[in-house]
Amino acid sequence: MTPRVTVYISPDHDLYHTSLFLSGLSALATRNAIVLEYVIPTGDAAWLAADPIVISLDIHAGRLRRVAVDLRDGLGLSRPILDRVELYLKRAFFVPELDRLPHDLAIRVVPFGLNFALRSGRSTVRLLAALGPRLVGRGRAGLRKLRQFLTTPAARAFEQGPDVALEAKVAFQTRLWTAAEVPPEEVEPLNAGRVAMVRALKSAFGKRFVGGLMPTPLALSQFPGEVTPHPSNYSAYLAVKKRCLVSVYTRGVEHSLAFKLGETLAASQCLVSVPLRYELPSPLVASRHFLPFETPAGCLEACQRLLDSPALASEMRRANHAYYLSEVEPAAHAAKVLARCLESTSS
After folding, report:
1. pTM for the whole thing?
2. Which residues contact 344 (CB under 8 A, 6 or more apart)?
3. Are residues 237 and 317 in the same domain?
């Protein structure tokens, strides 16, 4: 029996954070692996789409299974949804957060995995058919949301195989935040860490360093010497970043599993990363998928080790390409989510 999947969605949904998962479901439907429909719930069912960062699903395969995918950056649970679903897949999966829940709710929460924003032609058609007229009807706000979605790159902008020749360079392009954009307690540790990392990489690698601070008003006024000379347009920067052998990852807002993790794996690049706070369904393994660091000096050492060792770099690139194809590529990721939902709720 081909599973039928009903996605509950509304014009209030965050189309950026949900785009990869919806692209994966669309790809599975195109392959006839599932039958897919989008529904805008109303009345007593409106709770199914009440959280703009959570996708609620009904999976019809022998019996009905109702599940949810929470794609928020950090901690927090949508309790009205968690209380009513069998399984709740959470991008920012953090065991200490679950310790505060009743046992019957805690056991429903499992890790979702990595996420970043991309769309496909077919997923775009499905989404526009479901939400396009309603978003247009909202005027400028709806059109801004549509524009952000429609300018999200396709998978080909991120993907390349492990045999593509790359330059012996290190990529780290990042942005600074203000208290109006992130929790105030996050501003200082995030910004100070990112400025220090840019300075260290620039000093150590010179022209072999690709990146810097995004040219926001804050960066331009306070750290003009660290502002990137490279493109800051997303698609243009991706094309530059993909040519670099090594990509550096520092923690995101609220320790989120930032989009650049998935983007690095999609590009079959080597990864140098801080330890990850949130858990993945399939862990990234130190020395295989990434070299870990705790300080700027440790980051420089790890980057240099990869630049000096073509064999190690080639091994890591192949491992990261395999991880992407198995765990992050939209159709593969969506298929694993559905399989886990069917397995976990079968008893």
Report:
1. 0.95
2. 86, 87, 110
3. yes
